[in-house]
Amino acid sequence: MAGGDQRGDSPSSHELSGRLEGILADGEAPWARRACKAAALEVRLLAPIAAPAIVVYVLNNVLSISTQIFCGHLGNLELAASSLGNNGIQIFAYGLMLGMGSAVETLCGQAYGAHKYDMLGVYMQRSTVLLMATGVPLAVIYAFSRPILVLLGESPEIASAAAVFVYGLVPQIFAYAANFPIQKFLQAQSIVAPSAYISAATLVLHLVVGWLVVYRLGMGLLGASLVLSLSWWVIVAAQFVYIAASKRCRRTWTGFSWMAFSGLPEFLKLSTASAVMLCLETWYFQILILLAGLLGDPQLALDSLTVCMTLAGWVMMISIGFNAAASVRVGNELGAGHPRAAAFSVVVVTAVSFVITVVMAVVFLIFRDYISYIFTEGETVARAVSDLCPFLAATLILNGIQPVLSGVAVGCGWQKIVAYINVGCYYFVGIPLGFLLGFKFHLGAKGIWTGMLGGTCMQTLILFWITFRTDWNKEVEEAKKRLNQWEDKKQPLLAGTVDY
C-alpha cells in the first residue's frame, strides 16, 4: 500500500523528513546555518524514538538486574549461579533472537519510509514464525545447561545452581521470539512510548511478584527465573493487545495472514545473516564471563565481573536505544529516498550517544568503591569491582559509538558485511588476545577484559571507516531493490486475513 498520509502512522514525521532533506540539499545557504537547522529537525525526529526506546531497554534490563539482585542477596553462590545462567546461557538465546529479529528492523524501517505500510505486519508475522521454530532447539540446549557448563570447565557446584536458574528461563525463549518482531514492527513506525509504559508497569509487577516468590515462598533461583519469564510474557501480551486495538497500527496491522508462511526460506536467509552479525557481537562478552569461570578464584572473578557487566549492560541499554533510533531513522530515510538526511542522522545520533556514555563512565569512576554494594554485601567483591572500574569506563565509552554504528548497519542492510568484521575483530583478535593476557601473562580478569576491549576497538574503527566512506545515493538504490524483492505481489495461497 503506497502513499497516503494516515493519522496513525505519524505523517508529520514524513513531512519533517522531507524538510530535512531539503535543508541539507540547499547549497546556497551557509553550511553552519544548514547544519543548525538540520540538527534541530533531526533531534525532533530522533527524540520520539530514542527517548522511549532507551526507557524500554533500561526497564527491560532492570528486570534481569533485579532478578540477579534477588539471587545475590540469597548468597554469593546464588549470585554467581544467576550470573552464569543469565550471562552465560540466557544471553545465547537473547543474541540469536535479537539477531534474527533485526531482519524485520531493516525491512520494516525501509518499507515504512517508502509508504508500503501493509508489508510491515507481514514481515512481523514471518519473523515470529521463524523465531518460534528456532526456540525449540534452544529449549533443548537449556535443558542440558549443566553438562554444557561443566564441559566448558565451570565449577560443578556453580554449574548445578546455574542450571536450576536456567530451567525457569525456558518460557522466556518463546517470549523473546514474539517480542523482538513486535518491538521492531512498532519502532519502524516511531511508536515506542506505549512499550515504555508497558515495560514500566511490568517492572512494578515483577518486583512485587519476585519478592514474594523468592523470599516469602522460598522458591530461590528457580522461582526468580520463572518470575522473569512471566514478566516477559506480560510485556509480549500487552504489546500485542495494543497493536490489535490501536488506530495507530490500523494500516500496518490488518490481522493474521497466510502470507506469513510464504517466502520463509528467503526470509530465513536474511534473518540468518542478521543473527550471525548480532550473535557474534552479543556472545562476545558472554565468553568473557565463561573465561572468568576458568580463573583460579572463579567465584570472585564471576561476582566482580557480574557487577561490572551488569552495570555496563545497563548503560548499554542507552546506546541500544540510540541503536534502535539510528536503525529506524536511517532505514526510513533510505526508504524515502533521502540520502543526505540518512547520512546526517548518523552523525547526530552517534554524537549524542557518545556524550551520554562518557558522562556515565565518569560517574562510575567517581563511585567505583561503592557501586558493588547494590548487588552484594561482600567487601572482597567491592575491592575487585573497584579495581576493574577503569576497564568498565573504557567499555562504556566504546559502547557509546559501536552500537549506534551497528544500528546504522541494520538500517542499511549490511548485516552480512558486519558479520565478517565481527568474526575477525572479536574471535581472531579479541578473544585470543584476552586469553593470552589473562592466562599466559597471569593478568586474570583484567587481561581477559583488555584483550576483548582491543577487539571491540578494532571493530568500532572499521565500522566508523565504512560508514564514513558510504555512498548514500547508492544505499537509496539498494533499499529500493530490497523492497521490490521482498514485497509480495502475489495473492496468498489461502484466502484472506483474519481481522480484528
From TrEMBL:
Bilayer disposition of the protein: Multi-pass membrane protein
Principal place of residence: membrane
Cellular localisation: Membrane
Transmembrane region(s): 43-69, 89-108, 129-152, 158-179, 191-214, 220-245, 274-295, 302-322, 342-367, 388-411, 417-437, 449-468
Protein's UniProt keywords contain Transmembrane: yes
Keyword annotations: Membrane, Transmembrane, Transmembrane helix
Top-level lineage group: Eukaryota
InterPro entries: MATE_euk, MATE_fam
A GO CC term assigned to this protein in UniProt: membrane
Keyword Nucleotidyltransferase: no
One Gene Ontology biological process: xenobiotic detoxification by transmembrane export across the plasma membrane
GO MF annotation: an example: antiporter activity
Family assignment from sequence similarity: Belongs to the multi antimicrobial extrusion (MATE) (TC 2.A.66.1) family.
Name the record gives this protein: Protein DETOXIFICATION
Gene: LOC127766190
